[in-house]
Amino acid sequence: MDIEVAQAGWRDFPVLWSLQKKILREAEHLVATGEERKEPFAYALAKAFLHRKRVHTFLALEGGEMVGYITLVSGKFKKIRDTVYIVVGVRASHRGRGIGTKLLARAEEFARERGMHRMELEVSDKNEYAIRLYERLGYAAEGRRREATKTSGGYNDIIWMGKLLSNGGGRV
Questions:
Q1: What is the DSSP string of 138-172?
Q2: Topology of domain 3-164, per CATH?
Q3: Torsional sign, CA 79, 40, 148, 71
Q4: Of the candidates 148, 132, 59, which has an alpha carbon nearest to the alpha carbon of residue 102?
Q5: pLDDT of res. 33
Q6: Coiled-coil region(s) at which residues (predicted)?
């Protein structure tokens, strides 16, 4: 089935919140678990939807069902306003099907349309598939936080990755 990527709106909030909790439960390499992300995160997500100046979310839809998302957060302060921090999540059942690639492509298109200069993200060193995807799309490792997260298998490093876009000076 084809995957559609669409910008999220307020009406999508309840289903997006549910999707994010499912992804957090499925992916041990993520920092927070579904149980840890309760009301404060839901409140922050709802607030982001209400104040869409700096935060934008795109959804991956398959037959009308949300199977992934990407959130872009632009810098709050003037000196980092042209930088976009991204968070990507795809349901375990739908990984390896190009959904992350489509979400990242749409996010980059959105950032370029607004004249952004840089995109950045964090990824667990154990998430080798995602690291390869990011590298294939032009992201480079820029730093490492050693043993930054603890999982059932021990401690994982967090790799900071970034990509410079060809134009800059805009705002998401």
A1: T-EEEEEEEEEEEETTEEEEEEEEEEE-S--S---
A2: Aminopeptidase (3.40.630)
A3: negative
A4: 59
A5: 46
A6: none
